[in-house]
Every structure is written in structure tokens, then in C-alpha cells.
Design brief:
This protein is mainly beta. It is built from three helices and twelve strands; from the N terminus they run ββαβββαβαββββββ.
Length: 179
């Protein structure tokens, strides 16, 4: 299975370095000197890591195929890919493992289906297509998603009131009782 490990950001300096928006828990391995990364779109690569370092919390990488700033600028927005097996770590899932899981509440009420994973600045969010068709971002944190059961084909949600589109009444209120 292909996994996106980074998206190329803007060029850094004049010698062809680029910043990366890392999407991996093991950047030291993924961006090690000599690592060959496939690209999306495919015609932009493959790219071979020539040097890698962190600067102000961001990865800066130079690829052997990129000679200067102009070439580095042309890579902006390219996704870097690797092949991976399914995760064997507890509490660690790849997006392809989550996609298609049934989203349900603790009492078994089906809410919808997980259709993706968004990488947000604070934390990841599950993209849930609710049964009514609404697309809802659910913070992928243990208090809100206490159970991820990949073999069972489901995630259990414990959302705060108003998070899900189904919590909205026809007139836009949360459907909570009036005082």
C-alpha cells in the first residue's frame, strides 16, 4: 500500500533545498540520506534524498535530482510516497486502514462511514460521511474516538453535542431542550 509521507513545500535557499510538510512518525527513516521516494504525480520523481535536516521544527531536504532553487520551486505541492505494510502498532493506523470503517456511537447506532483522514495542525481528524450525506470532521483523539476496531470494521464515536450534522435540527438548532 502506498503511504504519503510528506508534501513538498516551498524552496529554501538557492541550492535546491525544499521544506516538507511531514506526515510520518519516523521522518529520520523516511528522509534518510539515500532514501528514494516516489512522487505523486509520478513524472516528478522518483527523488533521492541527498541531505536532510530540521530547521525551526520543519524538515529541509535536498534531492539529488534538484540542482537549484528554480527546480526546487517546481516541486511545490508534490506528495512523497513509500510502500508500507499495514500497521502492527497498537493505536497507530494508516489512512487506508481507516477508510471504509463504519462510524457508530457507543450504543451501536450507525452514524456513517469513515471516508478519509485530514492532517490538521493540532491533530488529525476523521472525515465521516454521515448517513444523511453530510461530511463531518471528527477530531481523531481518544476521548472522541475511544475505539478503533479495524478487524471489526468500525470506529466508535463519543462526540460532544453539536459535532455531528445529525445533531442539527431542521431549523439549525442543536435540538437541545429549551430552559
Amino acid at each position: 500500500m502506498e503511504l504519503v509521507v510528506a508534501r513538498v513545500g516551498r524552496a529554501h535557499g538557492l541550492r535546491g533545498e525544499v521544506s516538507l510538510e511531514a506526515r510520518t512518525d519516523v521522518p529520520d527513516e523516511r528522509f534518510a540520506v539515500g532514501a528514494v521516494l516516489r512522487t505523486d504525480p509520478a513524472d516528478a520523481g522518483p527523488l533521492t534524498v541527498e541531505s536532510a535536516r530540521t530547521h525551526q521544527g520543519r524538515w529541509l531536504v535536498r534531492f539529488a535530482e534538484v540542482a537549484d532553487r528554480t527546480a526546487a520551486e517546481s516541486l511545490r505541492g508534490i506528495e512523497l510516497l513509500v510502500d508500507v505494510e499495514d500497521s502492527v502498532e497498537e493505536d497507530a493506523w494508516y489512512p487506508h486502514e481507516l477508510q471504509g470503517l463504519r462510524a457508530e456511537l457507543g450504543d451501536g447506532t450507525v452514524v456513517g462511514e469513515v471516508v478519509g483522514l485530514e492532517h490538521l495542525p493540532a491533530h488529525d481528524a476523521l472525515v465521516v460521511r454521515e448517513d444523511g450525506g453530510a461530511r463531518t470532521l471528527v477530531p481523531f483523539v481518544r476521548p472522541i474516538v475511544p475505539v478503533v476496531d479495524v478487524p471489526g470494521g468500525r470506529v466508535v464515536l463519543d462526540p460532544p453535542g453539536g459535532l455531528l450534522a445529525r445533531d442539527q435540527s431542521a431549523d439549525g438548532d442543536l435540538g437541545e431542550p429549551e430552559a
